[in-house]
Amino acid sequence: EPEVTQTPSHQVTQMGQEVILRCVPISNHLYFYWYRQILGQKVEFLVSFYNNEISEKSEIFDDQFSVERPDGSNFTLKIRSTKLEDSAMYFCASSTGQGAHEQFFGPGTRLTVL
Amino acid sequence: SQQGEEDPQALSIQEGENATMNCSYKTSINNLQWYRQNSGRGLVHLILIRSNEREKHSGRLRVTLDTSKKSSSLLITASRAADTASYFCATDANTGNQFYFGTGTSLTVIP
Asked: Which tens digits make up the pLDDT trace of B80-90?
């Protein structure tokens, strides 16, 4: 069964460093998403991406964040200058359509900012 | 805020019993989805129910939706120890691009 994959599973970085979280969505999916979950808190929407551009983003997704689909398979989230409060699980998801379509989630990347 | 809120926050039952979790939300929706998350793991989609549907079944899962009360329930019948996980409802915004997750119900099924 096809699945969303994410690498790395755990990333440790120093405050102020740039990190890139990688995702490989399911191959025939057209919509891509990033969510984050701070430990013990809700899963929060960050951004959705379709047709090589951001279609929607939340207040959390400020100028330090960017997303890219550098090739036909990868979908990346870049955090330019990490802060302590960026420590969280970051989940990538993909779907065939928007709205009434299941979003398939990856296993997540645990980001720890020291 | 559109966020769903699950109730109860925690539920502990014996194996074989049924588990019922509820979700309430604040504004109109197009769809509501239920997800499961094992500790420290990713989210697994369980079921999607559209705003014009009242009930859906999938195996041991039964989901109801009452748009007049802005609430949904997830029933797991004949629970198993492997059902131990956190369960979240997620509601969509009007654009349908993002889902708002609740805080989840932590279910423990005791063997």
From this structure: 999 999 999 99
